[in-house]
Structures are given as C-alpha cells and as structure tokens.
From TrEMBL:
Residues 7-74 form the DUF5060 domain. Residues 105-374 form the Apiosidase-like catalytic domain. InterPro entries: Apiosidase-like_cat_dom, DUF5060, DUF5605, GH, Ig-like_fold. The lineage of its organism: Bacteria, Bacillati, Bacillota, Bacilli, Bacillales. It holds the Pfam family Apiosidase. Residues 415-486 form the DUF5605 domain. It comes from Paenibacillus rhizosphaerae. This is DUF5060 domain-containing protein.
Length: 496
C-alpha cells in the first residue's frame, strides 16, 4: 500500500508504475486501470504508457476524504497494486468541471454559473515555445474563458510549417507509426492544458479535423487507429477538470468518416471518460450559403450542447428550442482582413454578433484573422490580438456577470430579442434596428430603472425617472443599442 500527499478536489492525482516486462507494443498490447473508492463512490480510470518503461494512471477526485485504489493489468507486476491518498477542499479558483444544467445554462460543479466567452486558436500548441508563452500571456489578460484547440496539427492556408512534435512517433519524411504515440508531445499538451486551467480557461479539445487532406494522414486513419487514439487521449487528459471534448471541427468536411463513425467516437468518449466531460461536435459551412449546412443530430444522448458554425445569429433561439440544449456558436466568422469570406468582418460586426446570439439565449465564440507579415494569425497560431472586438466582448461579459440570477430568453418581450428574469430584470438588444421609443409591459406597482447601453462605444446611460406598468421608454434612435431595465430591488436578487 502506497500513501501519497493530499490532492485538491477536482485536481489531478497521478501514480506511476515502472515495469520492465516486455509484451509487444506497450501502447496497444498492455492494459492498465485503477479502481478508486471513497465510501460508496467507485470510479474506474484507465492508465497509459508514458514511455521509458513508465505507466501512469491519472484520477480527478470529486469528493473530499480518503480515497483508496487498486490496479488491474495484464502485466503481473502492475496488477493488484494498492494505494491511498487524501482529497482536501478545493483552493481559490477551483470550481470543478463545467456541466450543462438546463437548455440555457452551464455551471461549475460547485454551483457557480459559467458563461462561455470563447476564442479559437486551432494550432497554438504546435507553434514555438516562445509563441505559446506569448499566447498564454495574451489569454490571461483577455476576456476569454474558453479556447478551442486541436490535438492534431493543421495544414491549411497560412499554415504550412511542420511542427516539432506530433501525437505519433515518426515524421512526415519517414512516416508515422500510428500504433505508437509520442509521449513528449502529450506532456507538452498537458502542461498547456494545466496552465489554461490555472487561469480559469476551459480547453475545448478538438479531437479530429479535416485540415490534413492526407499530408500527414491523421484525418484518414483506420477505425482501429482512430479508436486507439481516442482511448489514449482520454486516459491522458480526462483528469484535467477544464477539458471539454469536441469530436471534430467541421466534421462534415471529413469525407472519409460517416455518421456511424461519429456515433462510435462519441460512445467511446462516453464509455472511457470516467468524469463525463462536456461533449460536442462542430459543423462546417460554405459561409453565407444556407444550403451548405449539414448538422449532426445534436438530440443524440451523448451530445451535451450544440457547437455551431453559423453566420446568422438570429437562428440561435430556434436551434436551442429544437435540441433543448445550450447553444454555443463557436464560429460566427472572424474579425480580420484576410481574403476569405469567413475571415474579414469588422470588430463592430463581431461585437454585434455576440450581442445578437446572447440576446437569443446562446453563447458566441470569438476568432481573429488579421494578415501578418510572418503569418502569425490568432485563429490558428495565437500570438497577439489585434482587433477591436475583445474589449467590447469584455464589456458584454461584465454586463452579463452583473446580472442577478440566471437570465433566460423572455418570450413576453415582443419585437426585439431579450433575456432576463421576468418581473425583475430585462436586457434587450436592438441590433441594426433603431427605434426612438420602445413600449414595455412591466409589473404594476413596481418601479424600474432603464439604461441605454451603447454596445460599440461601451457606454451606459441611465434614463431619467422610473418606469412601471404599461410604459414607453425613450431611446436615442441609433443602431447597436441595448436596453437594460431593472427593478429597484433587483440588486437584492441573488444569483441563483
């Protein structure tokens, strides 16, 4: 029996076992797991081979107290090893994993409300160490609390450099051994995931993508190699509380995969992830072409939320109602100036799309694609942010975090999308519309204040007087305004 130091709740406990017993390919032919127990709570976690004769098991304890475990393996020297450790209360900033709790909301496991304000840096972990460090520093100062990132490298426009390390052993020149993983790559990935978690940023891990087209061959592996890859990634990464699983980016552009394959991948992740991290899959589009939309069936039980690529944020509420799950429009185009139709909207338009999606009950993701002399573009490489939308997104995030309770779509407000808490808090977004006055039906006998929010200049102006019952609220008649209406006692409402 081995006894280890205490570990925080929802942190990573790791135990290592060294074995010199030879048995074929240690990545494929050896199996190892541990059964962890805390009172009546029993959790099984798969182990993995980390190279140089070292096998590891990682575990994320979800309850405080003494945990005991025992191993099982087809290698006799690793079978029946027992151990224990203490799990203590979580430290500051450790709220646990994010879960879906309704068609509208996400929460951390400790009950804290989580609203995703995400960004995309597909291949940032495949850049130089210096550029990765720079990206982390920029993220730390940004308004973003989620990042979409790929395991596999990306071969695409502005992305032609060969990474130093790959998920598999080998090289482009000599070929890759798809049955042997590269532990050095995964150690780097894990280090970056932990650093993101320490900053309160969720890592939305994209497991497959089409930006290979046979260059490395990771997009067209055999079913056996696909499945083994998924099991290995889950064994290594699932103990990190800030991990989300995105089965693919633009899954429908991967012509070698069928719906049955994606169903199987979801079920493998569901079966082997002992903590049930959030699971989604992301569609592609020929941007601005409605006929190009081919959505996966998000109603399937293994999908936790809708991850959507769409340029028209007015569809948000309809999709939310269709699937009865939270909707995250992870890609609504990119602020930038590259000559691709998906990559050159203004910061003002990106801000508008964030507000439009929010007011319709969804969450929106940021992306940036400004031309750079060294082709260091945030959307794929990370580095610096050059656009104007991040500060406006920070402004929106602060407004939402200041709201009492959990805002939901308000169907009682007509002619304009709105969220809030009926009878106490209303947040309306007019977008391109610019009425000079807006009628509202507020509760009788209850006084409300009204504030005009300029979403582009990031100003808030309180209107004179108070409002109650059937009333008309005067507006400046400019586009891209929001209206916040709060009861005088709404400040006393607790976040539910």
């Amino acid at each position: 029996m081995t006894t280890d130091h205490a570990v925080e709740r929802w942190a990573v406990y790791e135990t290592s076992i060294h074995s010199s017993e030879a048995i074929g390919n240690p990545y494929r032919d050896v199996w190892l797991l541990a059964v962890f127990r805390n009172g009546d709570r029993v959790v099984k976690a798969d182990g993995f081979y980390d190279g140089d004769g070292a096998y590891k098991i990682r575990f994320m304890p979800d309850s405080v107290g003494r945990w005991v475990f025992s191993t099982k393996s087809n290698i006799p020297s690793m079978d029946g090893i027992a151990g224990e450790f203490e799990c203590m209360d979580p430290g500051s900033g450790n709220h646990g994993m994010v879960r879906t709790v309704s068609p509208d909301h996400f929460e951390y496991e400790d009950g804290t409300l989580y609203m995703p304000f995400g960004t995309t840096c597909y291949a940032w972990i495949h850049q130089s160490e210096a550029l990765q460090d720079e990206t982390l520093a920029v993220l730390k100062a940004s308004p973003f609390n989620k990042i979409r990132m790929c395991v596999f490298p990306k071969r695409y426009t502005y992305n032609t450099a060969e990474p130093e390390l790959f998920p598999f052993q080998g090289s482009k020149e000599l070929g890759f051994d798809l049955e042997r993983f590269e532990p050095r790559f995964f150690r780097k990935l894990e280090r970056r995931i932990k650093q993101l978690g320490d900053m309160g940023i969720e890592a939305d891990i994209i497991l497959f993508h089409p930006y290979d087209k046979g260059h490395w061959g990771f997009d067209r592996m055999s079913a056996e190699d696909d499945d083994a890859y998924l099991r290995y990634v889950i064994a290594r990464l699932s103990a990190y509380r800030n991990v989300w699983w995105s089965l693919a980016n633009e899954y429908d552009f991967m012509r070698e995969k069928r719906t049955e394959d994606w169903d199987r991948f979801f079920q493998i992740v569901q079966q082997h992830d002992p903590y049930q991290h959030l699971r989604s899959i992301h569609n592609g589009t020929k941007m601005y072409d409605p006929s190009s939309l081919h959505l996966y069936d998000h109603a399937k039980p293994w999908v936790d939320h809708v991850s959507l690529q769409h340029w028209d944020l007015t569809v948000t509420d309809a999709i939310r109602r269709q699937y009865n799950k939270p909707v995250v429009i992870d890609e609504c185009c990119y602020e930038g100036d590259i000559p691709r139709r998906w990559g050159n909207i203004t910061g003002e338009e990106m801000t508008h799309r964030f507000w439009e999606g929010m007011a319709r009950g969804g969450y929106v993701g940021h992306g940036e694609t400004y031309l750079h002399q060294d082709n260091i573009i945030w959307w794929s490489h990370g580095g610096q942010l050059h656009g104007t939308s991040p500060e406006r997104i920070r402004f929106l995030r602060q407004i939402l975090e200041d709201a009492p309770g959990k805002p939901v779509v308000l169907d009682t407000v007509k002619d304009v999308p709105a969220i809030g808490m009926e009878g106490g808090y209303y947040l309306l977004y007019f977008g391109v519309h610019r009425p000079a006055v807006f009628p509202m039906e507020l509760p009788e006998g209850k006084e409300f204040t009204a504030e005009v929010i300029d979403t582009q200049s990031m100003t808030i102006e309180r209107l004179k007087g108070t409002f109650s019952g059937a009333c008309s609220i005067p507006l400046p008649g400019r586009p891209y305004l929001a209206l916040r209406v709060r009861s005088l006692d709404s400040s006393a409402m607790n976040r539910q």
